[in-house]
Every structure is written in C-alpha cells, then in structure tokens.
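Usage

Read records sequentially. Each one opens with the input sequence:
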Amino acid sequence: MMATIKWVNLGTTYCDFASKEVELMEQRIYPTGLQDGSGNAYRVLMRKCSAGYQCGHMENPCAWAEVGHDGRRYVL
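and closes with the structure output:
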C-alpha cells in the first residue's frame, strides 16, 4: 500500500514581509492503513506561503519562505 501526499490549505494571514495577505499551505503525507508509529494521522513534509518566492530572496526570510524555489506558486 502507498501513502497519500497532498497540499492542505491552512488559511490566510497578513504577512509583514510581503505587506499583504498570504495563503499558507502544508504538504502532508497520510499513511495508508496503519498510522506512522507516532500516533499522528499525517506528517508534514513541507510548508509554503503564496509569497514564499518573493520573501525567499530576502536576507532573513520567515520559516514559510521557499528558498531556492523555481518561481511556481506550488509544486503539486
């Protein structure tokens, strides 16, 4: 059996770095059948922000920034 990986929208928030509303997303892996041993229903693989590419070029970007990203909003 294979696990399911999908992007989940966590909502929007105001970003001081980008000076606008941004969308926050998590890429999650959901194990098929059994839980992953930690008791959690999923594990977070990656987090992204809709302004992550813009902020990723700043000297001190936030944790949601996509450092080294190729410019696409989300890689699905």
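Summary fields computed downstream for this record:
- The longest helix spans residues 52-55.
- The CA atoms of residues 51 and 58 lie 12 Å apart.
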